[in-house]
Structure formats: structure tokens, C-alpha cells
Design goal:
The chain is 28% helix and 15% strand. It contains 13 helices and ten strands. Strands 1, 2, 3, 4, 5, 6, 7, 8, 9 and 10 form a ten-stranded antiparallel sheet that branches. Helix 11 packs across helix 13. The longest helix has 17 residues. The structure holds protoporphyrin IX containing FE. Protoporphyrin IX containing FE binds next to strand 2, strand 3, strand 4 and helix 9. Belongs to the catalase family. This is Catalase. It comes from Caldimonas mangrovi. InterPro entries: Catalase, Catalase_3, Catalase_AS, Catalase_clade1/3, Catalase_core, Catalase_haem_BS, Catalase_immune_responsive, Catalase_sf.
Length: 489
């Protein structure tokens, strides 16, 4: 005889009838004592957690990271110890500006957030599909994001807000050039690269520090959508990227990325900066490959779909603060801001004990003196002491062996003008110049299209930036907008 599972309340009490409310007479009214109905409605009312304030629309999968090349001369991180070593991962892709129900094919950077469940804790690399970003000081982030969201009155997306902000933030030019290029509308999540974007650090077993940039190279190759296809799919299949990723994994076509690093010895930061005029910790700049070529580290493969979207993807919480021994931060101001912002966001969005949700929980033992809080369900430290130092030999103690080498910092505390640190035009211009003629044509058409209807003073301010990056860049956009190109000589 087949075994039928009995429906119960959340407290395990069998439910006799899940279709008909308990009423006084066949036509009602409903009785308050129908606690199953009440529990059902109350829980339903609380089904949503707030969506992420950015990167709300996303898709994710589990997989494995396998080391293919020995980089132990740069990092002592346990996950890199031996060639062939495997570490479980969870990767969430996303768009940035749209709400949770928005279309996957919108022109936007794509989030590329990886959680490595290492034996020394979770390493989260929450990057994008672009090597640079729009801004380089964290104090500008909330303002920048407001321009990407909806106008406070019309509740519409507003190109005027976007270009008003960008035209007064010349450091955005490099990322704008990427965003409006073909790469701004990737064909799903499998056919794009991922980047840690910031400069991070590596520390090796003898305490030497290196500055490092992380690159995930798509082994499926780069594929982008034409503007026409992106717009069509936004209407026909707004969940295009979610479907593509889920179906590929479901049919065992496992997507893979080659993880590579660019490595700069700590002492070279100053000389490289002198030589190039760029700050190696500036998130709006890349390190040219000719200076720091890619070094392969391993292969990341996604091979398992989540069982439950809300439990695993919506509750997933990544934080740039999560680095493991052998991997560290850098002075990048944006990274420093993010070290604070994410844990704080998770405490608000998911709750005090969000790190205990299975997708966020370390897969190695963890021992903290943090206690209590809403929804504590990991035993809460049991009968062990909840303070430190203490007299209990078996209680968790700090381990000085994990201390990082000291980092020399200097300078007077002040609010330094970030706009004068490194010119915003050369690298944006270089990117424009490496594009083929047809790619430049699409880039400048995309930009002109996105600026249509924006007030002329904003357009003129922004055109100066394009022209300073490359006169052909400025001219082409001006021509397509039917306005005079600025004279920046
Ligand atoms: C998500 C803040 C810059 C990549 C988020 C979230 C916040 C945030 C609050 C939502 C977190 C959540 O609720 O789970 C910031 C701040 C930044 C910044 C304050 C600058 C100071 C960046 C940069 C990148 C980036 C530069 C990429 C290089 C991401 C990604 C997610 C995200 C990928 C989604 C993670 C996921 O899939 O859950 N950011 N962000 N952010 N951010 Fe940022």
C-alpha cells in the first residue's frame, strides 16, 4: 500500500480539511478557531523578505572549484594547497538595477558572486562581469544607485538622473564604455567572464604579500545579445538567463570558468603607480595584461541546481568581508566600504542569524562567542561558555598563526579628492580604441539611444568626457544625437 503523507500545520498537527474553512453554517461567517486557516494566512503575509537593494534579480547554482595550477608561492590559502584539490562553491549571478521581477536581458552589469566553502571558512568573491566599476569612493554608492532605480515622483527609470550623475562623475567613463558595448547585454550567464574587480591581496606561507586581481574566464566563450534580441526577450522571456542556466545544468551541460589571477608583488605597487600614473587600488582602472599577465589557478564548474529558490538563492548572503587566511583586502576605498555594507545588509534583509541558513553556513566547524538573536537554531553554543578569555581549556581560543603581516599605511586623515587620483580618460579611450569599427558603431549608437531626451546641458557635459577619451568617440555620439561635438583641444 502506498504511504500517503498527512498534511499538518507547521506545529505538526494533522489537518483534516485544507479546502473548506470552518464556518458557522454553510455560508459563513468564518470562525476564529480555524487556526489552520489563520496560520496559513499569517504565514503567507510574511513570505517575503526584502529584495536585495541592488542585484535583486538573480540565479544561482552549486558546483566545484578544482585547482589546476600551483600558486602556493603567492597564497597559503588552504583551498589552493594542492593541484587537483576540490572545494564546493555556490555562485549567484544577477542584474543590478532591476527589481526581483525585472527582465534578465536588460543592459546592466551582471553580478558574479562566488561562495567558496573552504576548510578555513567561507571565501566570498562578490564581483561583476566587468573588471572595473562606475565610481571609486564608497560615499557615492547610494547616490549612484538611486540614479539607476526609479524617479521618486514618476516611478520611472530616468536616463536624465543617470546621465546627470555620470556627467559629473568622469571616473564612470571606463565602466560606461563597457556597459554600452556589446558586453552590456550578455547572452545569459554562461557566456560571460567574471571579475573580482577590486584589488585584493594574497599572503604566502612565509608572510610575503602580493596584490591580486581575480578573473573568471568563461570556457563557453563570450556571447552577447543584439539590442533587438535583448529587447524582444525582455518581453517574451524575461527569465531568459535563469532558464538558460537551470536548463543547461539540468541537462548536464555544466558551465565552467577558468579562474586566473594577476599578481603584483607588494613592493611594486609604488613603482607601477609612478610609471603609469594609476593607483593600483583604483576600482575604475584595470592592470594591463602586458604588465601583469594572467596566471591560471583552477576551474570552477557549476553542476547542481538549487532545490528551492527562496531557501537557497534568495537567502544566500555574500560578503566581501569574508576572506580566508592567505587571501586579504587592499586599501581600495570601495572594497573598504563594501567590507562594512554587506554584513549589515544581510542582518537587515535576512536576519541576525543569517549565517546559519544552510546555503550561508560554513562547511567547516565554526566556533564563535556570538549568542542568541532571532531564529537561533544551531544549538546556540549549548552549555559552553559565552565569553572569552575564560578558564576552559577546550573553549575556542584565538590563533595568532593566522595573523597577516603588517601593512604599512601613511598619510594625514583627510577627505582627499578622488577625482584627481589617476586620469579617467586614458583607459576608457584605450577600450574604445581596441573595439572594431562595427563594435564602436554599436557602442556609440547604444549611448546616443540611451541619451535621447536627456536635457542638453547634461548631454554637453557628458560629451566632453567621451571626446577627452577619444575625439572619434565624442564625435560619433554627437553626430548620432544631432548636436555639435565639443572642442576639447
Ligand atoms: C549586492 C552594496 C559595490 C557586486 C549588494 C548589496 C548591497 C551592496 C547592500 C545587497 C546585499 C544583499 O542584500 O544580499 C554595495 C556597496 C558598494 C557596492 C555599498 C560600494 C561601496 C559593488 C561592486 C561590485 C558589487 C564594486 C562588483 C565588483 C555586488 C554583487 C551583489 C551585490 C555581485 C549581489 C550578491 C548576491 O548575488 O547576493 N551590494 N555594493 N557591489 N553587490 Fe554590491
Amino acid at each position: 500500500m502506498s504511504h500517503r503523507t498527512t498534511l499538518t500545520t507547521a506545529s505538526g498537527i494533522p489537518v483534516a480539511d485544507n479546502q473548506n474553512s470552518l464556518t458557522a453554517g454553510p455560508r459563513g461567517p468564518v470562525l476564529l478557531q480555524d487556526f489552520h486557516l489563520i496560520e496559513k494566512l499569517q504565514h503567507f503575509n510574511r513570505e517575503r523578505v526584502p529584495e536585495r537593494v541592488v542585484h535583486a534579480k538573480g540565479s544561482a547554482a552549486y558546483g566545484t572549484f578544482t585547482v589546476t595550477n600551483d600558486i602556493t608561492q603567492y597564497s597559503c590559502a588552504a583551498l589552493f594547497h594542492t593541484v587537483g584539490k576540490q572545494t564546493p562553491v555556490f555562485l549567484r549571478f544577477s542584474t543590478v538595477g532591476g527589481e526581483k521581477g525585472s527582465a534578465d536581458t536588460e543592459r546592466d552589469p551582471r553580478g558574479f558572486a562566488v561562495k567558496f566553502y573552504t576548510e578555513e571558512g567561507n571565501w566570498d568573491l562578490a564581483g561583476n562581469n566587468t573588471p572595473v566599476f562606475f565610481i571609486k569612493d564608497p560615499s557615492k554608492f547610494p547616490d549612484f544607485i538611486h540614479t539607476q532605480k526609479r524617479d521618486p515622483q514618476t516611478n520611472l527609470k530616468s536616463p536624465t538622473m543617470m546621465w546627470d550623475f555620470w556627467s559629473q562623475s568622469p571616473e564612470a567613463l571606463h565602466q560606461i564604455t563597457t556597459l554600452f558595448s556589446d558586453r552590456g547585454t550578455p547572452d545569459g550567464y554562461r557566456h560571460m567572464h567574471g571579475f573580482g574587480s577590486h584589488t585584493f591581496s594574497f599572503v604566502n606561507a612565509v608572510g610575503e604579500r602580493f596584490w591580486v586581481k581575480f578573473h573568471f574566464r568563461s570556457m563557453q566563450g563570450i556571447k552577447n545579445l543584439s539590442v533587438a534580441d535583448a529587447v524582444r526577450l525582455a518581453g517574451e522571456d524575461p527569465d531568459y538567463a535563469q532558464r538558460d542556466l537551470f536548463d543547461a545544468i539540468d541537462s548536464k551541460e555544466f558551465p565552467r570558468w577558468r579562474l586566473c589571477v594577476q599578481v603584483m608583488p607588494e613592493v611594486e605597487a609604488e613603482s607601477w603607480s609612478k610609471k603609469t600614473g594609476w593607483n593600483p587600488f583604483d576600482l575604475t582602472k584595470v592592470w594591463p595584461y602586458k604588465d601583469y599577465p594572467l596566471i591560471e589557478v583552477g576551474v570552477l564548474e557549476l553542476n547542481r541546481n538549487p532545490e528551492n529558490y527562496f531557501a537557497e538563492v534568495e537567502q544566500a548572503a555574500f560578503s566581501p568581508a569574508n576572506v580566508v587566511p592567505g587571501i586579504g583586502f587592499s586599501p581600495d576605498k570601495m572594497l573598504q566600504g563594501r567590507i562594512f555594507a554587506y554584513h549589515d545588509a544581510h542582518l537587515y534583509r535576512v536576519g541576525t542569524n543569517y549565517q546559519q541558513v544552510p546555503v550561508n553556513k560554513p562547511q567547516c566547524p565554526y566556533h564563535t562567542y556570538q549568542r542568541d538573536g532571532a531564529m537561533r537554531f544551531d544549538g546556540n553554543g549549548g552549555s559552553g561558555p559565552n565569553y572569552e578569555p575564560n578558564r576552559f581549556a577546550s573553549a575556542p581560543k584565538q590563533a595568532p598563526a593566522y595573523k597577516e603581516p603588517p601593512l604599512k599605511v601613511s598619510g594625514d586623515a583627510d577627505r582627499y579628492d578622488h577625482t584627481v587620483d589617476g586620469d579617467p580618460y586614458t583607459q576608457a579611450g584605450n577600450l574604445f580604441r581596441v573595439l572594431k569599427e562595427d563594435e564602436r558603431d554599436r557602442l556609440t549608437s547604444n549611448i546616443a539611444g540611451a541619451m535621447r531626451g536627456v536635457p542638453l546641458d547634461i548631454i554637453q557635459r557628458q560629451l566632453v568626457h567621451f571626446a577627452k577619451a577619444d575625439p572619434h568617440y565624442g564625435d560619433a555620439i554627437a553626430r548620432k544625437l544631432g548636436v555639435t561635438a565639443p572642442d576639447v583641444q
